[in-house]
Fold this protein.
Amino acid sequence: MRHVLLVVVVILLANPASATLQRTFVSHKGLDTNPCSVDMPCRSFAVAITQTNANGEVVAIDSAGYGPVIITKSATIVAPLGVHAGISVFSGDGVTINAGSNDMVVLRNLYINAQGGFNGITLNSTATLHIERCVVSGFSLDDINLIPTTTAVVAISDTVTRQAGQEGIYADSAFTLTVSIDRCRMEMNADNGVLAGRAAVAIGNSTADHNLGAGFLRRVTPQIWGSRRVSCRTTAWASK
C-alpha cells in the first residue's frame, strides 16, 4: 500500500499540465487534459492559452474548430497558412481580449464564425492588438468591436469582415485609440463597414462593399465615405 501511494504522489508532482510553455499546440485529435505540447496537444484555444507563458504562442496544428477564447496576457494565437483554425461562437463573443496595459496580442489566420454570437473579436484592454489574415463573419452586433478601457494601438491587415448585424469594424474609446486598417474588406454588414467614434483611424488599400449604411463612417463629426460601396487607397480620421 505504501508503494502505491508513493507512485501516485510522484505522478501528480510530475504532471506537466501544471506547468506553462512558451509555445503550446492545439489539434483536432487533442485532449484538453493534455499538457498542450506538440506531441500531446490540447483540443481548445481556451485551455491552451492557460498553459502558455506570457509572450508565448498558441499554434493550431491542423484544421478544426477550437472554440472561443479569453486572452488576459501578451500572446499570439496563430494558424499556419493552409490550416483552417475556426472559432464557432454560439453565444457571447468569439475572442475577448482583457490583457494588461503593456501587453501585445496577435491573432493570425483565424476564421471566426457566428452561430448566434454577439461580437467576433472584442478588445476590452491591451496596449497593442494585431489582427492579421482573419475572417470574421455574421455576428449579431459587430464583427470587430474595439472598445478598450486602456490606451491602445490596433493594426488590422488582410482581414475580411462580413454580414455583421451592426458594424464590420467598430472603434470607440474614452482613452487614446489608434487604429490602422490595411488591405481589408468590409462586406454586406447591416450598418456600416467601419464606424469610428472616439478614435484615430487610418484606412488604406481597403474596400467596403454592399454595406447597408456607409462604407466608412466617422460618428463624432459626421463624415460619410460612400453610401454602400467605396474603395480607398488612404483615408485618415482623427476623431478624438
User: Anything to note?
Assistant: The helical segments are 2-14, 45-50. Residues 4-18, 224-228 have pLDDT under 50 and may be disordered.
